[in-house]
Amino acid sequence: MSAVSSILVVGAGQAAAVAVATLRDQGFDGRITVVGDEAHAPYERPPLSKAVLAAVEADEPGISVKEEDFFSARGIDLRLGTEVVSLDPASAQATLSDGSIVAYDRCLLATGGAARRLPGLTPDAPQVHYLRTLDEARRLRNALRQARSAVIIGAGFLGLEIASTARSMGVEVSVVETASRALGRVVPEAFSNWLQARVAASGATLYLGQSITDLQLPADGVRVSLSDGNVLQADLVVVAVGLVPSTALAQSAGLQLNAANGGIEVDALCRSSDARIYAAGDCTSQHHEGHGALRLESWQNANEQARIAACAMLGVDAPPAAFPWFWTDQFDCNIQMLGLPRAGLHYVLRGGIDPADASPKFIMLGLQGSVPRHALAVNAGGDLRALRPVLERGLSIDAAGFSDTSTTMKAYAKALLASAAG
Ligand SMILES: Cc1cc2nc3c(=O)[nH]c(=O)nc-3n(C[C@H](O)[C@H](O)[C@H](O)COP(=O)(O)OP(=O)(O)OC[C@H]3O[C@@H](n4cnc5c(N)ncnc54)[C@H](O)[C@@H]3O)c2cc1C
Fold first, then answer.
1. CB of 83 closer than 6 angstroms to any ligand 1 atom
2. What pLDDT digit, counting tens, does each position of 309-352 carry?
3. How far apart are CA 87 and CA 90, in angstroms?
4. Residue 116 near ligand 1, beta carbon < 6 Å
5. Inter-helix orientation angle 157-168/189-201, to 10°
6. Domains, the chain, ranges and CATH?
7. Residue 57: pLDDT band by 50, 70, 90 thresholds?
8. Is the CB of 48 inside a 6 Å radius of any atom of ligand 1?
């Protein structure tokens, strides 16, 4: 074991919880301090826009990343409701909002990010909502329970999940998006069209290619004017226009940030530009072969980077990060994405993409030449699992064979793997 005897983790979210569990699993018995500015022990954020938002208060699902006594049982000093206000890499010390100072041999920045604010909109007005934290989810849930209508700004994954949950609660929903199609940066046009039809079938209205020319907050709700002249009136507005990575500490400590995406630059071992400081999760920017520097905002990325960073801090080899994977649940569909989209992919389809199908099941596979790089699976998680090693290994496929549903995906993938092996 290396000479590391004290580790400070800044942030008490997904990456923080996985990192400290890994440290103890690896046999590290030194001091671990986790400092989080929220009042809650680390919790899973994906349910915030799904089960937590839809829940009746008394039945809110448990979303803790670790069981209640995990931190005390494993000798981890968890300090909640406390912010790390400054980091001094030269002396390897952090100052906390309660005035205390924590020295470290290694520090992990797991600071995540905050919902991007809409300029000019009073953030704490009662009709204005953002969704990043448990407290914000509870506030939005209470408001949706009393609302007849909501305007959601942003038709990304989060905005659409909120729209879907709000519809399931009987709220009239309008979704406003500046781009000409939903999820335009990450899915092909045919997928956007299918999803947009699904949104419409739920009773929500999508306003695509619209900028907001005016946003008023009268006492009884919101008034949103669109560039096409439409004026939407609703009881509340939810702004879901992306994430700003929390990098203030990193910046003031002089760490290198990515100029394009604003994330903390880390290498494959999650090391920052300071030898003692590592970073993991939504706050990071990392190089991905074939894509350049990316800031991945996903549950899986937070877990993988946390595991790798923890091992690297101890000088232990860790298996490399798993192939990127993401899921979303919306409009009665489970949508999973394997790999990352990139320019120039040609998508082939397996299964039916009929918008009228109430229980769709299909996979779209993005090919670079004959090599699959990106897969989108709707209600087809089992098939996607079978396909995973094909994508991981970059094996060529024949589009007709992939689309032929008379062969199971498991058998098709198995045959491809066997022929590659032999
Ligand atoms: C509503 C919602 C739904 C989602 N759904 C999905 C999904 O379906 N699938 C998926 O793959 N991903 C989903 N995600 C994304 C996923 O939850 C995140 O990628 C993941 O939580 C990132 O973990 P993290 O540890 O990097 O950051 P976080 O979990 O955000 O934790 C960071 C913590 O650090 C704290 N902090 C920041 N600065 C300081 C400081 N200076 N001092 C102390 N504490 C600080 C923050 O307040 C926060 O508590 C969703 C996210 C949200 C918000």
1. yes
2. 999 999 999 999 999 999 999 999 999 999 999 999 999 999 99
3. 9
4. no
5. 20
6. 6-114+243-314 (3.50.50.60), 117-239 (3.50.50.60), 332-421 (3.30.390.30)
7. confident
8. yes
